Amino acid sequence: MPSLVDRLFVLLNNYAGMGAAGARGDVFELTQTIFKTVVSLIKDAPELVLSKKRLQLLLHYVEADVLDTQKQATAFSLLKAIIGRKLVDEKVTDVIQRLRELSVTSHAPHVRAQCRQVMLMYTAENYPLGKNPRKHIEFYLAQLEYEFEDGRVSAIEMLNSFFDSLLQTTVDTYAAMCLVKLAMRMVNDESQKCKRLVALAVRKLFEKVSDEKREQLFRIADDWLASSKISSRSLAAQVLVQLADVEGEKFSSRLDTVLQHFSLSLDAKHDPESVVPIVQSLTRIVRQCQEGVTKRLSSPVFDDIWGRSASLLRCGDSADVRLAAGQLLGQIFAGMDATFFDGASVAAKDLCDHFCWQLGAKKLTMELAEQAVKNLVFLTKALVSDGELQWLAERLSLVCRFEVINQPNEAVKRLNVFKWVAAVAMKNEGTRLDVVTSAFLPLLHREMTGKSAKNTEELQQLAIEVGDVLKSKLGEETYAKKLAECQKSANAKVDLRKRKLAEETVANPQKAALRKQRKQAAKVTAKKRKIAADHPYRKRKIASLENNTEDYSIE
Questions:
Q1: Taking the CB of residue 135, how many other CB atoms lie within 10 A of it?
Q2: Where does residue 318 fall: left (phi above 0), alpha (psi -120 to 50 degrees), or beta otherwise?
Q3: CA separation for the pair 20, 24 (Å, rounded)
Q4: CA nearest to 163, candidates 181, 137, 130
Q5: What ranges does the record give for the region Disordered, renumbered to this chain (predicted)?
Q6: Closest CA to 154 of 207, 110, 94
Q7: Which of 172, 217, 325, 443 could hold 312 in an S-S bridge, CB 3.0 to 4.6 Å?
């Protein structure tokens, strides 16, 4: 074995230092084969003695080759073998510092990944020189503010690997420092990818630390949540979500403190960018601690949450705030029974009014409308009297009529309200079913007959499906009778409109003529729009001719 090692180093001395000449042809293949043989000897030889000089020579080659794309793989393999065999030399520290920087600054993803692997071996596998990881952890925490996203991502992944691989006692030592630095990046980082990875790293940190240290970290986050600054509360909320994800229902023991502090942040006067993460975080905590939250619904702190949620549901400045508030209440509803409202401080009718207000907004997204309708389906169960149900049905029918008259090109309101009709009809009988049918069958009949100019097929299909639900509940005969009444009423309205127009033509011919001119002008405009849509090249040609005319105009 010693003679083999001597011969290998003689060959390395002759060929590995040839520079550019050694990077071509047979010489390159020879040197790479020699290095691979050395790697195998270091990893697998039962007894191996390398002099300090020879070890430093190998480390010198590693340091030189780690940036060479042709030699990188062998260089990393050699360094891993040296660290894995726990061969000690001061030169190793210099190489590690170089790789630590490359793990963040290198533009090549595979180089960053290899550097991280070496760093993890150096710090986590009991290598004699890597027993104190503090300087490495501090380095990667500092790189969380690195200017390029790839570098920050690499630093986060390295920290995540530290949390996963280091001993619990070691992670406990640096946990508070890591939490503070990581939490700041959850709020301040511009990259959504980095924010997501930081959140995962915080979760990993909570998973690894001891129960005693986890309690200490919770107190730090709770202090942030009690801060007078909304930005600090937003940061704390996102940290506590990760703790709730780790502890699950066990987090319920912390709810009394957490909910009290959360309620102070549920105010639409705050900046939406801070309020939305807080509300979303509370929603996730409720999901993780559904049973614990349900037990506290009648507590004073929840009375405050019910009251403050109203201002969020009606936040006119931000649809995101309204959506987040609706999702929060939807998650709370998921764990409670509608009978809760019988003696509660909050009235189901008031909450219905808030969600109807959301649906009535001129600018309404599909996601917001769907969440509002889901909540209304649950709250409808709490409207015990037929009068309250009729009030809600009339409010929602007005929402649909508003869209028909003022937003004929939109269909979000009708599509979602019709889904509410189907859901409520399936769960009710008798007079309650009659209330819903009377309020909405005329609207459904209108869409069944394809009266809408836009979204006709989608509305028609949904209206037919909802009509089938009503038919199955009412019976075919009753349903057909009510549908015929709707047809008769619709025909009567058309006849009345025609009669009024005819009377106006006689009584005020000038106004009738103007109306006819406007109608004709609208037809011409619509025809031009259709031609432009079917033949876009005509539009470009006209624009080109107009530009040419301007060029030759006489001033």
A1: 10
A2: beta
A3: 8
A4: 137
A5: 507-555
A6: 110
A7: 325
The DSSP symbol for 70 reads T
Q: Which helix (H) or strand (E) holds 23?
A: none
DSSP 151: H
- One-letter identity of residue 420: W
Residue 278: how many other CB atoms lie within 10 Å: 25
Nearest to 395 by CA among 427, 367, 436: 436
Give the pair of three-digit tokens for residue 317: 């400045």
Q: At 166, which amino acid appears?
A: L
Contact 37, 8 (CB under 8 A): yes
């995540």: which residue's tokens?
160
Task: Name the residue among 288, 191, 214, 203 with its Cα closest to residue 238.
Answer: 203
The span from the CA of 230 to the CA of 321, in Å, is 15
If phi over 0 gives left and psi between -120 and 50 gives alpha, with beta otherwise, what is residue 535? beta
User: Which residue is associated with the tokens 């037990």?
Assistant: 295
Cα–Cα distance list, 71 to 55, 81, 92, 100, 255 (Å): 18, 16, 19, 19, 56
Structure tokens at 257: 């403190």
Question: Cα 120–126–128 angle (5° rounding)?
Answer: 105
User: Exposed, middle or buried by CB within 10 Å (0-12, 13-18, 19+), for 71?
Assistant: buried
At 68, give phi and psi (nearest 5°): -90, 115
Query: CA 240, CA 226: separation in Å to the nearest integer?
Result: 13
DSSP 68: -
- Measured distance CA(459)–CA(465) in Å, rounded: 10
One-letter amino acid at 281 equals S
Q: Are 349 and 383 in contact (CB under 8 A)?
A: yes
For the record, the structure tokens of 295 come out as 């037990």
